[in-house]
Every structure is written in structure tokens, then in C-alpha cells.
Design goal:
This protein is α/β, with parallel strands linked by helices. Among the domains are: about 20-200, Rossmann fold (3-Layer(aba) Sandwich); about 210-520, Rossmann fold, CATH 3.40.50; about 825-975, Sec63 N-terminal domain-like fold (Orthogonal Bundle), CATH 1.10.3380.30. The protein is about 45% helix and about 15% strand. The protein is built from 35 helices and 27 strands. The strands form six sheets. The protein has an eight-stranded mixed beta sheet with strand order 4-3-5-2-6-7-1-8, with helices on both faces. An eight-stranded mixed beta sheet has the order 13-10-9-20-17-14-16-15, sandwiched between helices. A hairpin with a 2-residue loop joins strand 26 and strand 27. Helix 20 packs antiparallel against helix 25 (about 760-785) and helix 29 runs parallel beside helix 30 (about 875-900).
Length: about 1000
């Protein structure tokens, strides 16, 4: 029962809304708006900007849609921005369904539909470009909705969000929609500072209850229970604070069950759902149906099932959490395979489900496993509907490309009710999966985490196979924010009455760690903003240097840096006091212990110097040895980055820092060897005949050559290092004969502190004092670096642009030159390098196909490093232009380092040959050739190439070629993907 004051406040708020635009807006919905939605909409109606931070699926977009209604009611424009094109396309469709096609436009870089409409959906980059260009489309703009605004933490694309927020006219109301972040108030304080009055509305409540489960073997167990052992909701309506981790899970200890990776599967074979996998129920038991008995859900049957629910144990009695017999019954059995996982979910009524697998290969492998296990989750009627959708949507794909795109396998899996969804897939196929899943026809999707970015794919449950993923550098544990983002896809408002998150227990499973992830639902938002070359010339085209610096200092990055300085300064004072205390404690009655410690440091430094000189001598000897090698020499490699035996199949003596030797190992892999890759020169132990270099591109030839090498080495039992040692080994150490080192050691032995009985203790205190001293110096550098750090970087960028001729003037009066104005229109991570190539005319001799290939080299970044060299187009002008471009990149990198800036990445021609063949008219299968470039990556690279070429169209000299290149790249399913 609420208090009288609370009832009066609610009545007063409702009275304020009656008869307003918000009152008319909420009539659209069959449900009452949540309090956070009403609060945010009211603030918008009062003329304020808003930041809304709420969980996935909570209904944040309702606030954005109210901004649309306010704009239309007031005769103003509204721009709705999203971080990725897929979200933009989806939002465009939703707004068209609401308002009609004539009122809604779409701008995503490669698509322009009704750009003059009062409501325009666009990517954030498009809006940023409009702002810098002073586009007339900004006239009459009243609102900008920035969906998924927490994306500004993204290292590559995040800065664009801050540019937009800072540069938007002050009359525009900003609607920022974010996932729940732990520093929403800090972000809101920054918005209030740069945008004016901003209401911060934070909601941590899910509108749909979320249940957390753990799949142990074939048992579905609850993660959280109450004191009576009954399952409790972890988030959303019905969630209780009085809960604990299921004791059954805590007693399991180290779980050995894991998901199999083979193609087959138990239990899924012959499994035919016949429409049983329905939202809100299905044939199996409700997963909470018997939590009052054993706190778990056990699946007994395997293989085909009948249509009735199974009864597993008593329905009454007290919950049981211990006992040897109970524990033994729960011990994990044989590894559970993905088809079995789907069977468990289907039996428990938890389909449709999204199964997150953090690798593309894993997603594709899961689909193959289910196919080979004959899993079928659809009824004949559903399969007929799926087939009709596939026939219509996939008719665009040329027959010649169907096999290489694995269309038959995709069709078979989709008709049976499951599919993969990841960035390596053809976007058309991903779109079909989304459509079928949203329609309830596909029951299970195996997806990478990119699916959690906000695309509306309603799922009753979400399954996590692992709680770690590869982040591009290492395998790291999921953060609470990532866990929340993924599990937030389960249970969508208006579709499900509840959602379910299932973690599959694997080796070393820790129930408390999972509970911690499931309980902590927030993560901090950290700015990735930094000045770029393009940003600098755009700012200086509009402002003087002082105003440009002020603009940068308005960024969220500087806002956070300035706030952090307070804590850093306090830490510096603490360290200074600690250092002073250590200095007072350092007292040895035998002599000056600091002097003794300094001698130790000098000895250590001298030993390191001698070691470096020895390593340099080894590299020189290795360089000489490599230069004298011939094709067919069999080498013993001593270790380091390369070890074992290998045969020389190629030598390039012109490589900088080389020579570079191409080797074929006994396992049949090609690898390169440079002087610094081995600790000592390799030894030639034999010779053999090797195939011509062009034949080694074939796997079969490499395999046969490796077999011949192993046969050649048969009977040779010595270790490769022993062969190297007999051939000369490493350069002898000079430590024992170095006069300076011996003198230092004599001085150390003669020092009075050398015989101190407490010497070890004194040295430990010295080490601690110096550690504190180093930390304090580091903190002071961080304080100095963070104060106006962005402005200093901006000055470094401007100094380089002045040197290269993109800016002119001096002091506070800098302005772009003609070259700077061209750079102003280049939006790329390699913007300055592209501008340099254009200024030097390096690409003027290229035809359209070669220019498309060059554009791919400026856009492409390999997902992982490979040993083999990139295949280059058989086009002499391209090869010549690439060499010139690489030299330009080296010169630019040297100039950047002189100015204290990070070097721009050199061009990567990894798919230049693929893009060249595609631009010449080859089918996808022919264009990709042996590179095995996934279709999704190929289309994405084509889109990036088109975007860059479009930026080159206004450039004199190559504009017509760029326009022709766009036409050659934008064809086939590359162009079909942008159809609406």
C-alpha cells in the first residue's frame, strides 16, 4: 500500500500528462508505459535532452519514438541514428510501418531513401559528415535520437559519437539511449555540460523476469534458490534479494561435462518437434515446474520422444541438496553435444533459443552437428512456410555461387529449424535468419556475440557455452556487462512472459563466479575519443586553433581524464609519504647501502649490455649465414621463434632487415626466417631437391616435399640445437673477460656493506623504496599527461599537417590548404596516407579494377596474422602503385614518430587480388579463389571499398575511375544487399 503523499504525486503527474502529446502517444500501446519511460518522455516534452540507461529489452526505444512524435507534431525534423547499418535498416522498417513510407527516410552511406523526409534513420557516421559539411538537411532539425550510445566506448568508431554530440546545434534536443552502465550519472553530467539541461533516467528493472540456469550434463539446474530450495527469479518482476547459489551446484566442484565438437550427436537423432518448440510453453515441462522438489530438471530420455511430458521423480516432499546418493545421481555423465542441448531445451519448453558460441567456426560446426544428428525442430507446415521464404529471398543468389556459399546446407538446416548467425555469413543469409527467427519458424540460432548489439530477435532463452571469449589478443573472461548484454536477449516484452539464461557447465565450472556475473548487471562507459587528421582539418575549417582546442576539451574523454586527475594526485601524495618513510628506514651501520645498491644496478646494466652485444653478434652471423644459403639446403634451427628441421625453398635478399628465407618444415608448413628469429645461426646439415616456387602454392606439393624431407632426415637422431652447436653455436660470452664488469664486481666485494649480516633485508627495503619511487613518477606522468591531453595531441597533429602542407598559417591562425580540404572529406583510419597518395598522384594510372584493389588495401585489416604473403593482382600498374604507396606509408610513419604520434598502419593487400577479380566481373567463387574469404567478410569489404571510392569521386584525375570502380564492385549480391 503506497502512502497518501505517493498517491498524490502519482495523481499530480498523471494530471500533468492528460491532454498533452505524451497522452496521445501512449494511446498507441496496449500496455501502460513504465515509470522510467514516462519520466523520460515528460522531460522531452518539457524541452530537455535525456539520457536513458536501461537493460536490453526494457523498452528504451519508446522514448526515441516519442521524440519522433514530438518532432512531427511541432513541424520539425528528427534524425534517428544507430551504430550499424543492420540496426538502421531494422529501425527504418519499424518507423515505416508506424508512420508510412512517405515520412521516413534512410541514409546509411550506400543507401539513400527519401533523405528530405521529416524522419530520417541514419548511421552515426552519416550525421557526423553532415555536421562537418554544414548540410542544409540540418535545417529545422529538432531532435536527434542516438540509439546504443554506449557504443562511444568502441575504439575504432566510438569517437564519431562524441563528435556528433559536441557539434550538434544547441537548439537540438538529444535523446541518448544506452544499456545500463555503472557511470550513467557521470555520462549524464558530461551531456548536461555540453548539451545543456539533460535529464538522466536510469532503470535497472527488466520488464520480463529472467531465470538463470546451469546445464550440468543433461540436467537443467537453477542457479539461484531460496532457503527452501525453490528457484527464484534473478532479474525483473518477482526478483528477490533473499537468494543464494544453488547448494547442489556448489557441491559439484569441478565439472567435467563439456560440449562435443564432433559432427554427430546423441539424442538428437530422429528428434522431430512437430511444432512442439513453442514460446511460452511447448511440450516439455516448464523449467520451473518442479523446482520445489529437487531444485533441478532432469532429462532421462534420449533419441525420439513422445509428445507428452515426462515425470522425473517425486512431485512433492522437501528439497534435497546433499547426500552421497543424490550427489552421485547428479554427477556429469558423457559429454553433452549440441543436438542434445537442443533436445533438453525443447523438452523444457525453452525454445526458441539463441546459443552464443564465440567463434564463427563454432557456429557453423554446431549447425553441421545438428544436421548430421538429423535434428528436426519444425512441423511439416512450418517447413513449407520456411521453404517459401527461402525460395523468394535466395533467388537472388547466382547458381554458380550456391555451392561456395553453402546454400544447400543452409536451406536444409533452416527448414529443420536451426541456423548460424555471424559476421562471416552473407548478409542476405543473416537477414533471412533474423526474419525466420522473428516469425517463430527457426527455433535455434547459433550466434556470435555480434547478435547482442541490438537487432530485435526475440528468444525465450539464451545459452552460453563458455564464459570466456577471444578478444583479439587473448582468451578473456566475460565481463558482467557482456554477460548482461548477452542474457538480455532472453524474454522480450510483449512476446514472452519470462526469459531464461542457461550456462553450460564445463571443466572447472565455478557456480559462485557465474552467480557474480549474473548479479552484477552494469559496466563502466569509457570514452575512446581522440583527435584524428580528418577531425583536425574539419575543426580548423570552422574554428580557429583556440576554439578547436576548446571543442576537443568538451569531449567525454577529457571530462573523464580531468576527473581522474583528482584521484591520481591523491595517490601521488600517498606515495611521496611512503617513499619518505622508506628513506628514513634505510640505514646500515657498515656503510652507505644506497651506494652498494647502485653498484649492483651498474653490474646488472653492464651484464645486459654485454648480452645485447652478444645477441647482435649472433644476428650478424645469422645474417651472413642466411645470405649464403641456397634453395634445397636442409637446416637445423636452434630455437627461438623457429626450431626443428626445415628446407630452404626461397630466399629474398632485398628485404629490409633481411635476408628473408622461406622454409618448409617437416610438418609441411611454410614459414619465414629472418636473422632475429633464431638465437644462433642455423646449421646446414644436408641438401635436397625442392619443387619450383610456383608449385609450392599447392598443398599437395608441400605435403610431398615435407615427406621427402622427413625421409632425408631419417636416422638423424641428434637434437637440432646439437647440430647448431657443432657448427659454431652462439657467439662466446665476454662477461668473464670484460674489464669494466670485473672492476665493478671487485668494487662491490670491497664495499663495507658487502659483509653486513642484514644485507638481504637492507636490499629488500631498497627495492621497495625504489618501486614506490617509480610508481610515484609514473603517477605524476599520468597526471601531466591527462591534463589537457587531447589538446596536446591536437597540437601534434596540427604540427604534422603543417609540415606536410595540409595546413597553412602560424600560431593560432591555421587553416586548411587545398590538400587539407580534400583530406577533410576522407573518413578512414588511413585518411592521411590516402591523402598523401592522392597529392602525389600515385593512383592516377590505375584502371577501375586496380583502383578497387588499391582501395581494398587501404580498408582491409586481416583478422589474424598469416605466414604466407598476400596474393597480388596480375596487374603491373597496380603492383607499381602499391610499391609507391608502401614507400609513402614508411615516410609518413617516420614523420608521425617525429611528432610523437602513433604511426598509421601500412596498406594491407591481403584481398587485393580478390577485389581485382571481382571488379573484373568474376563470380564470387572465382574471385575468392583459394583464399576462403567468408561471404560476410567479402561483402563487408566491398561495402568499405565502395565507401572509400565514393569519397574519391570528387578528386580531380581519378574521380571518373572511382565512379566506374564503384559500379564494378557494387554488383551481384553486394548490390542486392542494399535493396529495400
Amino acid at each position: 500500500m503506497t502512502s497518501p503523499s505517493e498517491r498524490y504525486a502519482a495523481w499530480s503527474a498523471e494530471r500533468r500528462i492528460q491532454g498533452t502529446e505524451l497522452d496521445r502517444f501512449r494511446d498507441r500501446f496496449a500496455f501502460d508505459l513504465d515509470p522510467f519511460q514516462v519520466t523520460a518522455c515528460t522531460a522531452l516534452q518539457d524541452g530537455r535532452s535525456v539520457l536513458v540507461a536501461a537493460p536490453t529489452g526494457a523498452g528504451k526505444t519508446v522514448v526515441g519514438e516519442f521524440a519522433v512524435q514530438l518532432a512531427l507534431a511541432g513541424g520539425r525534423k528528427v534524425f534517428y541514428t544507430a551504430p550499424i547499418k543492420a540496426l538502421s535498416n531494422q529501425k527504418h522498417g519499424e518507423l515505416v510501418e508506424w508512420l508510412g513510407a512517405e515520412k521516413v527516410g534512410l541514409l546509411t552511406g550506400d543507401v539513400s531513401v527519401r533523405p528530405e523526409a521529416p524522419v530520417v534513420v541514419m548511421t552515426t557516421e552519416v550525421l557526423r559528415n553532415m555536421l562537418y559539411a554544414g548540410s542544409s538537411a540540418l535545417d529545422g532539425l529538432g531532435f536527434v535520437v542516438m540509439d546504443e550510445v554506449h557504443y562511444l566506448a568502441d575504439r575504432l568508431r566510438g569517437p564519431v559519437w562524441e563528435e556528433v554530440i559536441i557539434q550538434l546545434p544547441p537548439t537540438v534536443q538529444l535523446v541518448s539511449l544506452s544499456a545500463t552502465v555503472s557511470n550513467a550519472e557521470e555520462f549524464g553530467a558530461w551531456l548536461d555540460e555540453v548539451r545543456g539541461s539533460t535529464a538522466v533516467i536510469v532503470s535497472e528493472a527488466r520488464p520480463v523476469p529472467l531465470w538463470q540456469h546451469v546445464l550440468v550434463g543433461d540436467e537443467l539446474m537453477d542457479l539461484f534458490v531460496d532457503d527452501a530450495g525453490r528457484a527464484v527469479v534473478s532479474q525483473g518482476p518477482g526478483a528477490r534479494g533473499e537468494r543464494r547459489v544453488n547448494p547442489d551446484l556448489e557441491r559439484l566442484g569441478s565439472i567435467t561435462a563439456r560440449i562435443g565438437d564432433g559432427p554427430g550427436g546423441r539424442g538428437g537423432r530422429g528428434h522431430d518437434g512437430h511444432g512442439g518448440a513453442r514460446q511460452g510453453g511447448g511440450r516439455g515441462r516448464d523449467p520451473r515446474g518442479r523446482r520445489g522438489t529437487q531444485g533441478r530438471h532432469r532429462r532421462r530420455g534420449r533419441g525420439p520422444r513422445d509428445d507428452g511430458p515426462r515425470q522425473d521423480g517425486p512431485r512433492g516432499g522437501a528439497p534435497r541438496h546433499g547426500g552421497g546418493e543424490e550427489r552421485s545421481a547428479r554427477a556429469p555423465g558423457r559429454p553433452l553435444r549440441r543436438p542434445d542441448v537442443l533436445a533438453v531445451l525443447d523438452e523444457a519448453g525453452l525454445l526458441p533459443a539463441i546459443c552464443f558460441i564465440f567463434s564463427r567456426a563454432g557456429c557453423d560446426g554446431a549447425v553441421r552437428q545438428c544436421t548430421m544428428a538429423h535434428v528436426r525442430l519444425t512441423s511439416p507446415a512450418e517447413r513449407s512456410r520456411i521453404r517459401a521464404v527461402l525460395d523468394e529471398r535466395l533467388a537472388r543468389i547466382p547458381f554458380e555461387d550456391e555451392d561456395v556459399l553453402a546454400i544447400p546446407a543452409f536451406r536444409r538446416a533452416a527448414e529443420n529449424g536451426y541456423a548460424a548467425h555471424h559476421a562471416g555469413m552473407l548478409p542476405l543469409l543473416k537477414s533471412v535468419v533474423e526474419e525466420l527467427f522473428a516469425a517463430g519458424l527457426i527455433k535455434a540460432v547459433f550466434a556470435t556475440e555480434t547478435l547482442a548489439l541490438g537487432i530485435n530477435m526475440p528468444a525465450r532463452s539464451v545459452v552460453l557455452e563458455k564464459l570466456s571469449k577471444y578478444n583479439g589478443v587473448e582468451h578473456a573472461d566475460l565481463t558482467p556487462g557482456e554477460f548482461t548484454q548477452l542474457t538480455g536477449r532472453a524474454g522480450r516484452r510483449g512476446i514472452d512472459v519470462e526469459g531464461h539464461a542457461v550456462v553450460i557447465a564445463g571443466p572447472g565450472f565455478d557456480a559462485d563466479a557465474v552467480a557474480s556475473l549474473a548479479s552484477r548487471r552494469t559496466y563502466p562507459l569509457r570514452s575512446a575519443f581522440r583527435p584524428t587528421y580528418n577531425m583536425a582539418v574539419n575543426l580548423l575549417d570552422r574554428y580557429d586553433v583556440r576554439a578547436a582546442r576548446e571543442s576537443l576539451e568538451m569531449s567525454f574523454a577529457q571530462f573523464q581524464a580531468d576527473r581522474s586527475v583528482v584521484g591520481l594526485a591523491r595517490r601521488a601524495r600517498e606515495l611521496e609519504e611512503t617513499e619518505a618513510a622508506y628513506r628514513e628506514a634505510l640505514d646500515c651501520e657498515r656503510g652507505d647501502i644506497r651506494e652498494y645498491a647502485a653498484l649492483l644496478e651498474q653490474i646488472s646494466e653492464r651484464e645486459k649490455t654485454l648480452s645485447r652485444e652478444r645477441a647482435a653478434a649472433d644476428r650478424d652471423r645469422a645474417r651472413s649465414t642466411l645470405a649464403g644459403l641456397r634453395r634445397g639446403d636442409v637446416l637445423a634451427l636452434p630455437g627461438g621463434k623457429r626450431q626443428g628441421f626445415a628446407v630452404v625453398v626461397g630466399i629474398d635478399k632485398a628485404v629490409l632487415g633481411g635476408p628473408e628465407v622461406l622454409l618448409l618444415g617437416t610438418e609441411g608448413r611454410l614459414r619465414t626466417l629472418r636473422p632475429g628469429d633464431v638465437p644462433a645461426p642455423p646449421a646446414v646439415v644436408d641438401t635436397m631437391r625442392v619443387p619450383a616456387p610456383d608449385r609450392l602454392s599447392k598443398p599437395r606439393t608441400r605435403k610431398d616435399t615435407a615427406a621427402a624431407l622427413r625421409q632425408r632426415l631419417a636416422g638423424r637422431h641428434e637434437n637440432p640445437r646439437e647440430s647448431v652447436r657443432r657448427a659454431g653455436g652462439r657467439t662466446p660470452s665476454t662477461a668473464a673477460t670484460d674489464e669494466r664488469l670485473q672492476q665493478l664486481r671487485e668494487t662491490l666485494r670491497a664495499h663495507p656493506c658487502h659483509a653486513c649480516p642484514d644485507l638481504d633485508a637492507h636490499l629488500r627495503w631498497i627495492s621497495r623504496a625504489r618501486s614506490v619511487e617509480k610508481e610515484r613518477a609514473s603517477v605524476l606522468r599520468r597526471v601531466e599527461g591527462r591534463t589537457s591531453s587531447l589538446a596536446r595531441r591536437f597540437d601534434q597533429v596540427c604540427a604534422l599537417l603543417l609540415e606536410l602542407g595540409y595546413l597553412e598559417g602560424h600560431g593560432e591562425d591555421l587553416r586548411p590548404t587545398a590538400g587539407g580540404l580534400r583530406l577533410r572529406r576522407l573518413f578512414s583510419d588511413r585518411d592521411l596516407l590516402i591523402a598523401e597518395c592522392l597529392e602525389q598522384g600515385l593512383w592516377t594510372d590505375l584502371d577501375p579494377a586496380a583502383l578497387a584493389a588499391m582501395a581494398s588495401a587501404m580498408c582491409y585489416e586481416a583478422r589474424r596474422e598469416g605466414a604466407d604473403s598476400a596474393e597480388l593482382p596480375a596487374d603491373e600498374p597496380f603492383v607499381r602503385a602499391l610499391e609507391q604507396t608502401l614507400r609513402a606509408a614508411e615516410r609518413l610513419a617516420a614523420a608521425e614518430r617525429r611528432h610523437g604520434l602513433d604511426a598509421t598502419a601500412a596498406p594491407d593487400p591481403g584481398i587485393a587480388a580478390v577485389m581485382h577479380r571481382w571488379a573484373l566481373g568474376s563470380h564470387y567463387a572465382v574471385a575468392v579463389g583459394s583464399t576462403a574469404l567468408p561471404a560476410g567478410d567479402f561483402v563487408r569489404q566491398c561495402r568499405q571499398v565502395i565507401d572509400l571510392l565514393d569519397q574519391l569521386v570528387p578528386v580531380p584525375g581519378i574521380g571518373p575511375t572511382a565512379r566506374a570502380a564503384i559500379d564494378r564492385v557494387r554488383r551481384g549480391f553486394v548490390s542486392q544487399e542494399v535493396d529495400l
